[in-house]
Amino acid sequence: MPSCPYCGIEIIEGVDECEQCGQTLTDLSLPMPSTTVEADLLRDRIGVLDPQQPATIHPDTPVREALSKMLLERIGCLMVVDQEKLIGIFTERDAITKLNIDANQLSDHPISRYMTPNPVAIGVRDKIAFALHKMNVGGYRHLPILDDQSLVGVISIRDILAYLTRRVGKP
User: Fold this and answer.
1) Are 75 and 10 in a shared domain?
2) Which domain CATH number covers 69?
3) DSSP letters for 40-95
C-alpha cells in the first residue's frame, strides 16, 4: 500500500486527498517528468509568469475605441468587464474573423457584439502546465486570470514562451 509523501501515513491507491494531513494527492498520478523543463511546468504556478494587468473595456465601448486601445497599448486582447465582472474577451483574432474588412462600417457598434463571451479563464493558483493545456485544447493565445470571480491578470502564449526560453538549457 502506498504512503502519503507529506505525512507518511498509508493511503488507498487512487484517493485524491490524504485523510490524515489533507494534502492533495492528485499530482501523484502524473507521469514523471523526463526533463527539468517538464518538471518546472508541472510545479510552477501562474504567478511566476508575472501576469500583466488586463486592459479592460465596457461592453458598450465602440469597436473603433477598442481597436484604437489595442493599437496604442500594443496588446493582443481586451477584457470586457461589466460591473467588475468578466463577461467577454476581444482579441486580435476576433477583430480579424468577426470584423475583417467591415471594421470601418462596424466602428460605432458596441464591442459586445464581436467579443467572445464567457471566456475560459484560469485561477491564480493554477499551474503553468494546466494553462498551457487549456491554451492548446482551446486554441487560445490569451487567458484571463481570476481570483475567486475577480479579474486580476492575463497571460499570453508569449508569456509561456518567455518562461520556457528562460528554462531551456538550465541544468
Assistant:
1) no
2) 3.10.580.10
3) HHHH-BGGGG-PBPPPEE-TTSBHHHHHHHHHHHT-SEEEEEETTEEEEEEEHHHI
Q: Is the dihedral of CA 163, 158, 149, 70 positive or negative?
A: positive
How many structural domains comprise the chain? 2
Q: Give the angle 91-83-72 at the CA atoms, nearest 5°.
A: 35
pTM of the model: 0.79
Q: Judge whether 5 lies within some domain.
A: yes
CB atoms near residue 47 (< 10 Å): 13
The amino acid that residue 23 corresponds to is Q
Q: Alpha-carbon distance 161 to 76, whole Å?
A: 15
The residue range of the domain holding 58 is 46-167
Cell match 467591415: residue?
102
Question: Tell me: the pLDDT tens digits for 7-56?
Answer: 788 888 778 888 887 778 776 666 677 888 888 998 899 999 999 999 99
Check whether residue 82 and residue 131 sit in a common domain.
Answer: yes
CA count, 13 A, side-chain hemisphere, 27: 15
